[in-house]
Write a structure and sequence with these properties.
This protein has a domain of 181 residues: P-loop containing nucleotide triphosphate hydrolases (Rossmann fold), CATH 3.40.50. Helices cover 32% and strands 27% of the residues. Strands 6-7-8-3-9-10 form a 6-stranded mixed β-sheet, sandwiched between helices. It starts with 7 loop residues before the first strand and ends in a 5-residue tail after the last strand. 37% of the residues are buried.
Length: 263
């Protein structure tokens, strides 16, 4: 992880996929030392925004900046040293071992066509130990469950030692214990000076883990702020079309209790 503290900023980002406007004027920042949760209904543009941040997709208006520099002007290796992403699910076509997959995260730090160095192997094994998957090292990625693959991809992102983690539903396939362990690892990285942008449909978990929330609806930002400010009944009804009560959890975080339909 670099020692230079830079801010990741989305500046008036707009994006169309075919005839559909997926993102419209999206602006917010992720600062070093904080976890920002990106929440919203299905199809609100959350995953698209992560793909724009990693240049998988190109924004048609606006830009993403890192430390005031447009990511469009950064080399692929420089961008990979700054941002590491964990997608919702990953299917690799070859039977790489879990350790080989985690070692792929070291590529941005290696010379072109470089071989894995002792420090790369040490970083990969340390990342696997942090996630608690050391026993997967020699197992084929194709023989792991969805949740186990998710942990391997997260370990790869940690081994990449980025400034910012971009996580797309990182706990969707995980049991309760592994959810807690993964989010604790994210918090440790952030407390060490990094930052994280986490896409999640779990509003309760987001409220407990994230320092701020960004709520998207139909490609637009409708609310930004601490969880207690964003998770308000009126805001959620406008964004999700669902009535809900907001109660206070034992730890003081807001808890969303949606009303069940009577039909």
């Amino acid at each position: 992880m670099t020692t230079d503290a830079r801010t990741l900023e989305f500046c008036d980002v707009g994006m169309r996929l075919g005839r559909r406007e997926v993102l419209r004027g999206v602006s917010f920042a992720v600062n070093p030392g904080e976890i920002v949760g990106l929440v919203g209904h299905n199809g609100s543009g959350k995953t698209t925004l992560l793909r724009v941040a990693t240049r998988v997709l190109r924004a048609q208006s606006g830009e993403v900046q890192l430390g005031g520099e447009s990511i469009a002007h950064m080399s692929r290796s420089a961008l990979a040293r700054a941002l590491a992403t964990v997608p919702q699910d990953t299917q690799l076509p070859y039977p790489f071992t879990a350790l080989e997959v985690v070692l792929m995260g070291r590529a941005p730090h290696q010379p072109l066509f470089g071989l894995d160095r002792p420090e790369d192997l040490a970083a990969a094994r340390a990342a696997m130990a942090e996630v608690g998957i050391e026993e997967f090292a020699d197992r084929s990625i194709q023989k792991l469950s969805g949740g186990e693959r998710q942990l391997v991809m997260f370990a790869r992102a940690l081994a990449q030692e980025p400034e910012f983690l971009l996580l797309d539903e990182p706990t969707s396939f995980l049991d309760l214990r592994h959810r807690i362990d993964l989010l604790a690892a994210v918090r440790r990285r952030v407390d060490a000076g990094g930052g994280a942008l986490v896409v999640s449909h779990d509003l309760g978990l987001s409220a407990r883990v994230c320092d701020r929330l960004v709520l998207l609806s139909h490609g637009e930002v409708v609310a930004v702020g601490p969880p207690a400010e964003v998770l308000e009944a009126g805001v959620l009804e406008r964004a999700f079309g669902v009535a809900a009560d907001i109660v206070t959890a034992p730890d003081g975080s807001p808890l969303v209790v949606p009303h069940l339909s009577s039909t």
